[in-house]
Amino acid sequence: MMLATRMFHSLSPGFFRPASQLLRPSSISSSSSLLRNVWKRSVATEHMTEIESGSRLANQRLHRPNSPHLSIYEPQLTWYLSSIHRVTGVVLAGALYLFATGYLVAPLAGYSLDTETISGLLQQVPTWIKVPAKFAVSYPFTFHIYNGLRHLVWDTTKELTLKGVYRTGYAVLILSVLTSGYLSFVLVEYYV
Amino acid sequence: MLQTRLGFGALRQSSILFAARPFTTSSVRQIFPPPPQSIKGTVNDAAVFPPPSKLHGSYHWNFERIVAIAMVPQVMMPLFAGTSHPLLDAALACTMITHAHLGFESCIIDYFPKRRFHRIGPLMHWILRGFTVLTLIGVYEFNTNDIGLTEGIKKLWKA
């Protein structure tokens, strides 16, 4: 009974080529001494136009897996800080873009994103939420600024050694935490 | 002496948590599926080099660095000295949006290269240009009708 099993297609005729398809060297009459042990095989080819072969290649590429990269590379300060620099940059620029376009678009929906409205909303948020939230908001800012300065230092060809990269990297981490802490924990009172 | 290599990789491999993870070759766990494929030309065509352009090269790199250096005093002064002036707001808006646009362009070139994404790559570039124009208009309106970038951030920070 034919269940849904795949039969090994070697049972189909024509899988194993007959030996006659392999031409022994002795059957070639004009064999030179160099080609004495070379066997010839008849190969079945299929004619394809360039467009057909291109579409077959495209279909193969759609099923190909990708090699792992970020998940297998040894965690290092170098590429971690580089990734964080890019992520914080995208987040900050994205926030700027979203706020500016929202400021333009909000009146069309009846809202208004001016500072009066937002500060009124923020005054109702309790302090124990606001201070950690300010740290979380200001840290990407300070990290990106200090790491950007680190990039500019590299562009002057300074600190381009492994020791220099790690030295400046730790300095960026420490400075950004300190500055962000100052901005969120010290700048709390409203100074007129 | 501070250790300069964090060395988490060896820790990962020796951890018991990861010892039981099976090693598979056939599981496909791709975060992003392959893009739509279209083959241009044949394998026998010569490699196409991008045409030389003054916009793509060292001038572009210099421009990026000049904008970044210009941002340093404009950001440090309001942040650490508390200065604020409408002209400073205008200059800060221009340099900040230019810097953001250049950064986004680098991201699009990295993640949507024209070689792989024939239509989506240029499309993302145009979407970015549209958003940049909207942002410029929005920040101009904010600086004109409201109290401005630096004063606004100060007010919202201490709200």
From TrEMBL, chain A:
Record Pfam families? Sdh_cyt
| Keywords, sorted A to Z | Heme, Iron, Membrane, Metal-binding, Mitochondrion, Mitochondrion inner membrane, Transit peptide, Transmembrane, Transmembrane helix
Task: Report any one BP term from Gene Ontology.
Answer: mitochondrial electron transport, succinate to ubiquinone
- What's the main place this protein lives? mitochondrion
Q: Name one GO molecular function term.
A: metal ion binding
The record's SUPFAM superfamilies line, in alphabetical order, gives: Fumarate reductase respiratory complex transmembrane subunits (SSF81343)
* Family according to the record: Belongs to the cytochrome b560 family.
User: Which parts of the chain span the membrane according to its record?
Assistant: 87-106, 170-191
Subcellular location per the Swiss-Prot or TrEMBL entry: Mitochondrion inner membrane
Q: Which PANTHER family match?
A: SUCCINATE DEHYDROGENASE CYTOCHROME B560 SUBUNIT, SUCCINATE DEHYDROGENASE CYTOCHROME B560 SUBUNIT, MITOCHONDRIAL
Record GO cellular component, one term: mitochondrial inner membrane
The protein in question is named: Succinate dehydrogenase cytochrome b subunit
Highest taxon of the lineage: Eukaryota
What kind of membrane protein is this, topologically?
Multi-pass membrane protein
Instruction: Tell me which InterPro entries the record gives.
Output: SQR/QFR_C/D, Succ_DH_cytb556, SuccDH_FuR_B_TM-su
Automatic annotation (TrEMBL), chain B:
Return the similarity comment: Belongs to the CybS family.
Q: Which domain of life is it from?
A: Eukaryota
Q: Which Pfam families match?
A: CybS
Subcellular location(s): the record lists: Mitochondrion inner membrane
Instruction: Extract one GO cellular component term from the record.
Output: membrane protein complex
Membrane topology reported for the UniProt record: Multi-pass membrane protein
Question: What name is this protein filed under?
Answer: Succinate dehydrogenase [ubiquinone] cytochrome b small subunit
Q: Which keywords annotate this record?
A: Iron, Membrane, Metal-binding, Mitochondrion, Mitochondrion inner membrane, Transit peptide, Transmembrane, Transmembrane helix, Transport
Q: Which GO biological process entries does UniProt record here? A: mitochondrial electron transport, succinate to ubiquinone; tricarboxylic acid cycle
One GO MF annotation is: heme binding
Annotated heme b binding sites? 99
Q: Does the keyword Membrane apply?
A: yes
Q: Where does a ubiquinone bind?
A: 111
What species does this protein belong to? Schizosaccharomyces cryophilus (strain OY26 / ATCC MYA-4695 / CBS 11777 / NBRC 106824 / NRRL Y48691)
